[in-house]
Amino acid sequence: MDVTARHAFWATMREQADQGRTVLFATHYLEEADAIADRVLVLHRGRLLADGTAAEIKAKAGARKVSFDLDGTIDEAAVRGLPFLTSVDISGQTVRIQSTDADATVHALYGLGVYPRNLEVAGLGLEQAFVAITSAEEAAEEANAA
Fold first, then answer.
1. How many Cβ atoms from other residues are within 10 Å of residue 73's Cβ?
2. Which residues form the domain of 113?
3. Partners of 79 in beta bridges
4. Is the same domain home to 30 and 53?
5. pLDDT tens by residue, 26-84
6. Is the pTM of the predicted complex or chain greater than 0.70?
């Protein structure tokens, strides 16, 4: 759909929902689902993995984004060894981390002598939560198969 058609589609879907009708749709545009849907289902390989509001799905993923800029250099191996990390991306002077315990991770950064600039801690977006939930399911499937 082009942009105009997409806006018209969503306006119609909102009208239908406002009239008390149930609207069920599948999408890969999770930012739209996050903004519009009252309820989100996460399906993976034909199985229902999560069911709730967008906020509940994001909370189920259990991780938060920690991002910051560096003033100097950083021991990348030490950062990757921090507690509770689920992913690390170090690009130049910018570090982006996903952590299941952001407070402990930030505390550990200071313990390494890393003093972040422009520190931001935020929840995952719905797309990141989807990836976290489905990745955890795949890891569990692989562990059970072994």
1. 8
2. 63-123
3. none
4. yes
5. 888 898 888 888 899 999 999 999 999 999 999 888 889 999 998 888 888 888 888 89
6. no
